Amino acid sequence: MDLTYSPEHRALRAEVKAFLRAHRHLAPKPFGLNRPPADARAWECLLIEHGYAARTIPREYGGYGAEPDILAARIIAEEFADAGLPPSLSNQGITMLTPTLLEFGTEEQKRRWIAPTLRGEVVWCQGYSEPEAGSDLASLRTAAVEDGDDFVVNGQKIWTSTAHDADMIFCLVRTEPDAPKHLGISYLLFSMRTPGIEVRPLRTMTGEAEFNEVFFTDVRVPKTQIVGARGEGWSVANATLKHERGAFTNPNAFLGRLNRLIKVMREETVDGRRVLDDPVLRDRLMELQARVFALQFNGLRLLTASVKNQNPGVAGLIGKLLGCEVNHQMAALAIDALGELGVLFGDGPHVRSRGSWQGRYMLDLGFIIGGGTAQIQKNIIAERGLGLPREPKLAKS
Amino acid sequence: MDFAIREEQRILQDGVARALEGLSPLDRVRQAAERNEPVARDVWEGLVALGVPAMLIPEAHGGLGLEVLDAALVAEMLGRYVAPVPFVASCVMAPVSLRSAGSPAQQAAWLPRLASGEIIAGVAIAEAAAGARDGAGVTATNGRLTGIALFVMDGVDAGLFIVADRAGALHLVDPYARGVQLIPLTTVDVTRPVCELRFESVRAEPLGGDASVATMQRMRDAGRVMLAADTLGAGWRMIEMATAYAKQRKQFGRAIGSFQAVKHMCAEMAAELEPGRALMWYAAHAQDHLPEEASLMAAHAKAYLTEVGRFVARCAVEVHGGIGITDLLGLHYWFKRIGVNRQLLGGPERLREEAARLQGLAA
């Protein structure tokens, strides 16, 4: 156990701090889930130039080209969080497609797509889930049939966040209808402006349309836009899903939310008394703090295991399950701490931060379900972590 | 930055586990329970031979000069094997207090004898650490102690008592001094005896001078980390027993572990317990390296692991079904050990209140 950093890492920390002090006036305004506006794209280019974004992506593909150094990545993330400035973009094109292209893409695909994706110029959406293929993703039915130099795609996707203003989609389609379900899938890239695509927004309980349904009718995709070989899309997609789960387990985000929760409980009063002075609510706060610390230190443990290329066992399988849950519980406590004020939403008198805790509480339930449901996570923990048997397969009907 | 246990620590932990595998199998634990042995002497001698009581004692006094984290890794294994031996008070809290606040004469008198396993030390700080029950409390006047201390850890067969008075200051007491009465207390957990001490104007020697209360807190924090680690070890053993059973037991023609209702119970136990390991490591490391966080992290680690411990103890029994509650299987030794760990040196509600106070979040 050594929690100190090397001189090189301490120097990096000082350098990031200095950079953030000197450039904070250039930081973009928040833009939510929308496409990055000009100031955000300029900020991203500045971060890439200094190695604070796309740090380990090779230079020839538009990254900074540093050797992988997990501690350096952590230091950079901590300093941005500490300064309250937006870190590098982390949309699906960057966190999911880029690592997938680096692993499976052709040279031409890497050169064409990675750089503009990193700079925020090309926005991607993910075409995985279908109405009949949720947790059982491999049963997806959107079909791609060969026709000359193209595939012709027909079918429907759902839960496609950002599809309404995405430029491109990375999409799973069935190319071999007669193969076993995992072996008949291919991974295609195509423009969302291709004729035959219809996007319908899907409003959720938050009142926003965070997701969409996407319909494909005779959408023509050049055969060169396949990633990996035909029929091998499932292993390509699995690599991408691994990257998605990683995105739910950022300890800096838990700590940030915990601190906002503590602030609410310190500042809000009931009967003129601080909410924090209610022993029951305070007990819940401390229980959540212990959980956040446990996840934070578990994260440090995983970081170390990853630096040493060791398998962390069960500790490496629990982040998505516990992380989404603790976030949801923090939002729930904030709402309870606010009481009736906690149910106010949108604009109007007395409402706190436009009801953002309610928004988080509802959206987090979506995260508990999305990207591999809590129940699928438990199957993974039990089967891969504890060696329990899989559900027996039903006989083929 | 290296958030991991070192190779030597892994070897130490494996060595203790291997020894306990032979010394403290379930049959031996059961025998100790049935005979009501306060200390399973053969198990204790085995641990003495490995240097377990010497771990936290400085080399100058015949010890190994190790850290609280090393001791916590051993505590985890003692919980795993529900070892019926003294440890938390005698091998951790007593050395921590004596090495940090004992006078040279006190250190010379006690540390070598603790290191060699010649004597066991009992620690009576329950009132200061968990609150006074049944009006207990010890008053110090002119170097003499009067009153009652409850839930004394490792006190049976001890050659030294370390006692906190009502103000939280520490005293060394000779168990054979005039006016000392020891009354064993029977808990559900027969693997570790606790007792009550009654003092009637008993001669005592102050420990720690001006730093006495701070020393009591330090030993209390180290003790809490040990109980957290013990629960981690006991909890994982219960999960392993439950998953092994779920793989082998068949109902409706298939292993019960293939039913999601059972499988998910196992997953939840593991998912909740495992992050407690990182929290416990950090809390243990803090005892020697991050003094400003030591009390907070010890409180959080023990509160977290005892909460999860209760959940694991209950679910692991449930996974076993009816056989889980029988004496035949013996799962109850772990169940009860986890139950007692929860209350000793402060239950989770009290610990969380302390955690809030330490951060200025409670009055």
Overall shape of chain B: globular
Alpha-beta content class of chain B: alpha+beta
Q: Structurally, how many domains make up the residues of chain B?
A: 3
> Within the largest sheet of chain A, what's the order of strands?
1-4-5-8
**Which shape of chain A, going by the Cα principal axes?**
globular
Report the order of strands and helices of chain A.
HHHHHEEEEEEEEHHEEHHHH
SSE string of chain B: HHHHHHEHEEEEEEEHEEHHHH
Descriptive overview:
The complex is a heterodimer of chains A (397) and B (363). In chain A, β6 (197-202) and β7 (211-222) form a beta hairpin. Chain A has 397 residues and is an alpha+beta fold. Chain A is globular. Chain A has eleven helices and ten strands. The longest helix of chain A has 29 residues, at 279-307. A four-stranded mixed β-sheet of chain A has the order 1-4-5-8. Chain A has a four-stranded antiparallel β-sheet with strand order 2-3-7-6, with no helix packed on it. In chain A, strands 9-10 form a two-stranded antiparallel sheet. The chains are: A alpha+beta (397), B alpha+beta (363). Chains A and B meet through α8 and α11 of A and α8, β10, α9, α10 and α12 of B.
Sum up the structure in keywords.
heterodimer, A: 397 residues, alpha+beta, four-stranded mixed β-sheet, four-stranded antiparallel β-sheet, B: 363 residues, Butyryl-Coa Dehydrogenase, subunit A, domain 1, Butyryl-CoA Dehydrogenase, subunit A, domain 2, Butyryl-CoA Dehydrogenase, subunit A, domain 3, 12 helices
Topology, element by element:
The complex is a heterodimer of chains A (397) and B (363).
Chain A: H1 7-23, H2 38-50, H3 70-83, H4 92-104, H5 107-118, E1 124-127, E2 143-147, E3 150-158, E4 168-174, E5 185-191, E6 197-202, E7 211-222, E8 226-227, H6 233-246, H7 251-267, E9 269-270, E10 273-274, H8 279-307, H9 319-338, H10 356-369, H11 374-385
Helix pairs in contact in A: 1-3, 4-5, 4-6, 7-8, 7-9, 8-9, 9-10
Chain B: H1 7-23, H2 26-35, H3 41-49, H4 68-80, H5 88-101, H6 104-115, E1 121-124, H7 126-130, E2 137-141, E3 144-153, E4 160-164, E5 170-173, E6 180-185, E7 194-203, E8 205-207, H8 212-248, E9 250-251, E10 254-255, H9 260-289, H10 294-320, H11 331-343, H12 348-358
